[in-house]
Amino acid sequence: MAGTGLFEEIKEEDVFKYYADGEWKKSSSGKSVNILNPATRQIQYKVQACTQEEVNKIFESAKAAQKLWAKVPLWKRAEALHKAAALLKEHKAPIAEALVKEVAKPAKDAVSEVVRSGDLISYTAEEGVRILSEGKFLVSDSFPGNERNKLCLSSKIPLGVVLAIPPFNYPVNLAVSKIAPALIAGNSVVLKPPTQGAVAGLHMIHCFHLAGFPKGLLSCVTGKGSEIGDFLTMHPGVNCISFTGGDTGIAISKKAGMVPLQMELGGKDACIVLEDADLDLAAANIVKGGFSYSGQRCTAVKVVLAMESIADELVRKVNAKIAKLTVGSPEDDCDITAVVSESSANFIEGLVKDAKEKGATFCQEYRREGNLIWPLLIDHVRPDIRLAWEEPFGPVLPVIRISTVEEGIHHCNANNFALQGCVFTRDINKAILISDAMETGTVQINSAPARGPDHFPFQGLRDSGIGSQGITNSINMMTKVKSTVINLPSPSYTMG
């Protein structure tokens, strides 16, 4: 069970502790934050409500620990990360259990997230050794007017303290995708987990604790965003912010000043289906892409743009697959489980009502019980319907019928979000041309949008983000270039 056995020290009575200076601590606030089970709407866990003073102390420790960690040999940093990865996989059961209860993630998907996270850490250790062991050597006579009397040695050094803020939907995987690159690069990390997903995050942090990382190098602060959110993101001790989430990221970017940012925000991932597409393949990917984890993924298919000539058949095939989806408890590995909160469910319902009022075609009856919303395909969606543009983050998928490919590309490019998109066609030339025309971070050809494999570049344009993720890009982003220039005697002054 979560919080028992090996993980007993991270909890006291019914409240999970926060992690600082290599220890599990209770907040001096004497307050806690409730975490509701999305499926039952009952209190499942409680975590510490940390104070601003405790945050200050965490940053002091993080700064001091980072200075020492940067001097640790690269191979030793990698060794520690490999140990943390092994511990994470070894103790996947209690972490997965927390994911099931906190964010209603189906049990098998919860285990997969933890295992994938261990793999990510190990790969990061290997990639970090490769990238960071290389420098650059420049000579000066390559630039006009210069002799070869200057030598430049260029290398990558850490930024300092990285503030990592992952989202509720992948609170373990998207935490380690920030933590591991930061640590291998020689940074320290302050993790602010999402409230829903905090307990899974604390269990994950305990695996790093057991791996023996130095005190103060990795901290985990829990609490109300209203009390410590801005205080964290605007803290003078922050040297880099890596954030994954929604609109909050835009607010953070406006307040962050000169701090380097890595941000992955929302998406309205468009799926363009051409006349010559394999419709069985397209339908399978639309259902997988649109309804996996109840559509609560930034890379979920969020709008289908189907050519009019094949739209009827495509919708029929998609509906047949939707009918086979199981709906219910995450413990029972159902395909569709409760969305994360009542406010999220209410937002989704608002989008559905707007579509109903404006005459869209409902392929299934809208059904909701608490936070559980049954999968729904909505056809004949027009541009004046909110679902055409807004991200539901739930199991509701709109279909827009298009008469030309250009119409589909225009709709994709007119959205504020530009994370991923996909195109289904048997013509590779068309696929490449459409991919070039789609203004989005990634285009998948004949597959649903997805984040990963975790070493692939992952980025969004416009309101979908800043910078690029993926293991290699994250390591590079969490370092800065340091140059040392050696000035040799001028040739005219040399002996002989």
From TrEMBL:
This is Uncharacterized protein. It comes from Diphasiastrum complanatum (Issler's clubmoss).
